[in-house]
Amino acid sequence: xxxxxxxxxxxxxxxxxxxxxxxxxxxxxxxxxxxxxxxxxxxxxxxxxxxxxxxxxxxxxxxxxxxxxxxxxxxxxxxxxx
Length: 82
Fold this sequence. Notes:
With 82 residues, the chain is an alpha+beta fold. It contains three helices and four strands.
């Protein structure tokens, strides 16, 4: 078995599909504390790698969450979907 075959065997079996990133817009975030509240609420419901930006209102995350869970998490943090 050559190097090319070893590489093909390794990458074919062990690679995971890249996680899908989603974006929601949240109204009312004003600072980094707001970002943390929203991020934590989403992470508590299973979102991964959450990045919230209070300047744009965008919140990006990985994972598959139902719309109701997202809205519930954002409301729990004290905000609403924009």
